[in-house]
Each structure stands twice: as C-alpha cells, then as structure tokens.
C-alpha cells in the first residue's frame, strides 16, 4: 500500500477545439454535451482532437453493457477494444492506494473508492461476456475456439493529475504510465492532441495496449461491435422482397454516414431541424431517435411521431415495430396530422376532399383544444415537415412539454408539393433550432439520381434537384416510353411489371404512380391499372382512393401499389413506374411541377420507368 504526501492540484483550462468534421473518428453518441464529470468531458474532447483524421477509431461514451456503464470504450482495428475509466481526482485528495482501491479526502470526510484500473478490468470482462453471449465474434482457431476473437484491454485516465505529480508521490507504482493517461497526455496542447493525423494517438495506444494475439477486424466485426455496444443505432427495415433485394437494401443502409448517426443519437431536450434531399434517411433518423429516447430514458413520457401523408403512418409504424418498440402511450404514438386534430377536438373530421378554408378551421379548433388541454408529450418527432404550416406547428408545440420537451422536425423544401405556401419565416417558430444537414443520398441508385436531375433541368427553368453526395449503389439506367394514349400506358406498364415478376421481384416491391388520376377523357386511371394487372394474374390495389385505403396501406402486402404521387410521399419501392408527368406539365401545376416530379421519380430505389401518355 502506498501513502501520499499532500500536494497542490493543477488543472489546465480546456480550450474547446471540437471539430466534428468529416473523416474523423466515429463517436457513440455523437454531438453530446451531456457529461457526468468535467474529466469525462475533457477526455471526450481530447479523443475528438487526438483521433484527428484517424477515421478508423470508434469511441463509445457511457454505453450500457450487461448492466455496466464503462466511461469510455475505444476501438481501433490494429489494437482492438480498450476500456477507460476516467477520474477527476487531484493529488491533494489521494491519501493511499493499492491494487484494490484508494482512500480519498472528500471535503471533510475520507472515503474508500475502487481502483479505477480494477473498475476498467471488470468492465472489460463484462464486454467480453456480452460478446461471448452474442456469439458472432468468437474465435474459430482450434486452440482458442469459443473465446472472443478481439483483444479487450483496459486502462485509466487521470484528468487532473500530471505525470510528474504522480511520480513524485509514488503513484506510478500503482497506476503505471503504460496503463494510464495523465493530464500531460490529454490536455489541448499535448503532442497527442496536436497531431491532426491521429497517428500519434494510434502509436501511443499500440505501445500501451499491444494486442496479445493476432486478429482481423473488418466491416463485419465493426458492425457486430456497434450492435452489441450501441444496439439501437442499427437499421432494420420491414421485409418486403426476395433475399437479393434485401441484401441490396443492407448494402445501401450500410452507407449511412456519420452525420446521420449523429442526428439519430441526438437525444438531449430541445428543438432540432434535420434537412436533407430525398433519400437521405431523414425518416430513419426519427425512428432511431424514438428508439434511443424510449430505451435510454425509460422514465420519459409519451412520444408522438406525426406526419402529413396518411399512407406514411403505416410505414412509420412498421419501422418502429421492427425496432422492437411498442406502439401507443407506452412506446410511440403515430398519427397523421388531421387524425391528431380529430382526437384533440373530439369531432368527426374529413381527412381530405374539402376546400382549404375547411382545414384552416380544423387547425384553429385543434389549436384551441390543445391550448386548453395542455402539454401531453415529452417528445414530438415530425416527418416531412415541409408539409406543415406555421399554424399546424403551433398545435404541436401546444402539446409539447415546454421545459424538457424534445421537438425534431425533418424536411426537404424541394419536396413541397402542396398548393399552400408552407413557411415558418416571420412566425417566430423558426428560432432556437439546432440544425443538421444530411448531405448523402443513399436510397436511390446513382443512375436514378443522375436521371432525376437531368429530367428536372430539361426545360432549363427548374431549379429543383437532388442536391447531395451520391452514396448509392449502381443499377439499371431508367427507361422512358412515349405512348399514344392512357390505355396504352396502362398496358405497357402491366407488361413491364409482369416481366419484373418473372425476374423474381416481389409484388410488394413495385408501385405505379400517377401524376394525375384522370386522363383527358375522364377515365379513372388507377382502376384501369388494377384491372390490367389483375388480367395478367398480378394482384394490385389502389392505395390512394380515399382516406380509408390510405390508412389501411401495408407496404409489406404482396400486391402492386397503385397510387398518386402525392400519396407515395415518404415511401419507396424497388421498382416504380411513373405515368403522366409530361401530360401534367401541359395542363397545370406551374411551379409545383418540379417538386412533384422529384417526389415521384425518387420513390424508385433501383428501377425507374417513366411513361408519357402523349
């Protein structure tokens, strides 16, 4: 046992050099400002600086592993996992230490605390146990069969003690420099912090925690670690198509970048605005935020997820259920906006088919009811926020806990397809939002995005485009057919979809979208489409016929979805046929046509067909 001399505590001021730029290490959670101690915040910022452009690092802060909460876990594919326990102690507080614990002067009392290296070791054992139970990272080597195939080591951080102080009082005998990082190492002017490449930190950790056995850590191993150490950050979609299409989906989803993960992990109270082009993962960010809130904060009150499109409600519910979240007050309540208004006013409301004045009155009554009933939600997550007026948003704010409530809104102004001018500018509602921009498009193939942008600019007037970094996979070039009539367009579509079915594409992964439901002769095109498909033994259904069909829509149903472009907003399919955009251009729509075209064309993930009835 060592006894320490009393001494003075030193602490360098921390300069906030948080960068968060692309190419940096990946943190779980990202963008957090919720730290338990000053030392943990200093070490978090240090890791952000010291990893630099070493984007092979993964860092977990305060994960829950088997009921334990280690301070930090750092992963590097050349090192493995290292668990760090962080302490804010000053030399003047330390009275004695041994391999099992320390005695500290805490104010006017003396307390016994666990040795942080022993704590970190126990956490490392818990991680190994979790990985062993998971079973996917066990060695296949006959000499080590059944053991975890990645090194899991442990260390400590003294955020307020210099190495010279530790040496002076004999602390290095219990906490050696090859197991512990001291203030010299982690302050903002240290050699490790100042190295923008991340190589200095990599070299130091390799010296301190040299792997005890050879191992390989690729994308598969990293994904498994993320599943085990931060499980709700993994995306799961409803199963709709065959095995091949599901594998392609997973390839696309694996391309979700750090910015999206950062937003998904943003669970602190406040207002957040998430913007991004079509196909950038805005809806999935909301789903993951709901999962994070419900699982990491079990005491949180009711959560509401709300959208404008009636058809989107069923899809949102599917995504939440796939995450294992219950629906309703104990999990997440999902409503389209006018359904919420009906619950607030307790009167029958027609969800569609009336003039704008009718819905203005509905919103006014809902706002009055919301203000009278008072807050009822701890978090409100709004999908497709560009469809909401300022008055609609006021209804939602009246239902949100004002002091601790969380409001997250996703939107893409380029997809504003409704006639009403939807803006919050000047309303006082667009202030105090923390803003995130998703820049990567992962839903569509690169060929589809290229086609969409060329289509939108073909007249030289439209400014709308899918503006983002293309991260999707490659696929077939979209097809364009010009036919003589609506009937010919319907027949051509049936033939195309029949050929895709013969190739193995599931009916639930195909959709036919009409820009306008009636042709010049007044024929109701969705019904003609269903009849033509059924004549070829292909089940189909009109999902946009009325509010009831929209509410009943199930994206996993084994039938071709026939819909308007408006009702398909927020959804996607493997194969999409869009009919009538050119016809619509010739009769109406004006400035809203580019947005409608963008929404329709970007519903296709891999195969897009455009048919012009002439």
UniProtKB/TrEMBL annotation:
A single GO BP term for this record reads: recombinational repair
What this protein is called in its record is: DNA 3'-5' helicase II
Q: Which GO terms describe its molecular function?
A: 3'-5' DNA helicase activity; ATP binding; DNA binding
Entry superkingdom: Bacteria
Matching InterPro entries, A to Z? DNA_helicase_UvrD/REP, NERD, P-loop_NTPase
NERD domain residues are 38-135
Q: Which organism is it from?
A: Solidesulfovibrio carbinolicus
């Amino acid at each position: 046992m060592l006894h320490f001399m009393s001494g003075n505590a030193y602490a360098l001021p921390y300069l906030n050099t948080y960068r968060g730029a692309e190419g940096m290490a990946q943190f779980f959670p990202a963008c957090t400002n919720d730290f338990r101690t000053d030392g943990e915040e200093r070490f978090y910022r240090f890791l952000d600086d010291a990893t630099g452009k070493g984007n092979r690092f993964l860092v977990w802060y305060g994960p829950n592993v088997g009921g334990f909460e280690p301070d930090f876990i750092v992963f590097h594919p050349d090192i493995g996992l290292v668990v760090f326990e962080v302490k804010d102690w000053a030399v003047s507080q330390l009275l004695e230490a041994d391999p099992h614990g320390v005695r500290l002067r805490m104010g006017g009392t003396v307390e016994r605390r666990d040795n942080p290296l022993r704590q970190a070791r126990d956490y490392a054992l818990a991680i190994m146990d979790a990985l062993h139970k998971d079973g996917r990272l066990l060695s296949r080597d006959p000499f080590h069969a059944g053991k975890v195939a990645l090194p899991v080591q442990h260390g400590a951080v003294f955020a307020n003690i210099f190495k010279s102080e530790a040496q002076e009082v004999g602390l290095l005998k219990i906490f050696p420099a090859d197991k512990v990082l001291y203030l010299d190492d982690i302050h903002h002017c240290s050699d490790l912090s100042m190295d923008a490449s991340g190589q200095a930190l990599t070299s130091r950790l390799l010296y301190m925690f040299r792997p005890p056995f050879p191992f390989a850590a690729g994308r598969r191993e990293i994904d498994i670690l993320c599943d085990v150490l931060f499980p709700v950050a993994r995306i799961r979609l409803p199963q709709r198509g065959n095995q091949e299409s599901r594998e392609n989906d997973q390839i696309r989803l694996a391309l979700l970048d750090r910015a999206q993960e950062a937003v998904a992990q943003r669970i602190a109270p406040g207002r957040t605005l998430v913007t991004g082009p079509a196909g950038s993962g805005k809806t999935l960010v909301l789903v993951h935020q709901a999962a994070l809130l419900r699982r990491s904060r079990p005491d949180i009150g009711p959560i509401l997820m709300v959208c404008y499109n009636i058809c989107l409600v069923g899809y949102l519910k599917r995504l939440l259920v796939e995450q294992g979240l219950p629906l309703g007050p104990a999990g997440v309540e999902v409503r389209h906006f006018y359904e919420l208004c009906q619950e607030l006013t307790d009167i029958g409301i027609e969800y569609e088919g009336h003039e704008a004045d009718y819905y203005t009155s509905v919103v006014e009554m809902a706002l009055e009811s919301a203000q009278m009933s008072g807050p009822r939600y701890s978090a409100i997550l709004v999908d497709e926020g560009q469809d909401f007026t300022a008055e609609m948003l006021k209804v939602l704010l009246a239902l949100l806990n004002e002091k601790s409530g969380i409001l997250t809104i996703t939107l893409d102004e380029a997809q504003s397809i409704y006639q009403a001018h939807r803006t919050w500018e000047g309303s006082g509602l667009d202030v105090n939002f923390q803003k995130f921009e998703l820049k990567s498009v992962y839903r569509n193939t690169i060929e589809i995005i290229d086609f969409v942008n060329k289509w939108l600019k073909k007249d030289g007037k439209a400014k709308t485009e899918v503006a983002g970094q293309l991260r999707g996979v490659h696929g077939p070039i979209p097809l364009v057919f010009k036919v003589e009539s609506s009937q010919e367009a319907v027949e051509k579509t049936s033939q195309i979809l029949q050929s895709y079915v013969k190739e193995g594409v599931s009916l639930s992964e195909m959709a036919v979208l009409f820009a306008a439901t009636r042709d010049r002769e007044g024929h109701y095109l969705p019904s003609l489409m269903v009849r033509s498909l059924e004549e070829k033994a292909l089940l189909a259904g009109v999902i946009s016929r009325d509010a009831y069909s929209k509410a009943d829509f199930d994206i996993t149903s084994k039938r071709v979805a026939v819909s308007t472009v408006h009702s398909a907003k927020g959804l996607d399919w493997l194969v999409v046929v869009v009919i009538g955009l050119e016809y619509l251009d010739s009769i109406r729509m004006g400035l809203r046509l580019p947005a409608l075209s963008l929404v329709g064309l970007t519903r296709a993930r891999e195969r897009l067909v455009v048919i012009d009835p002439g």
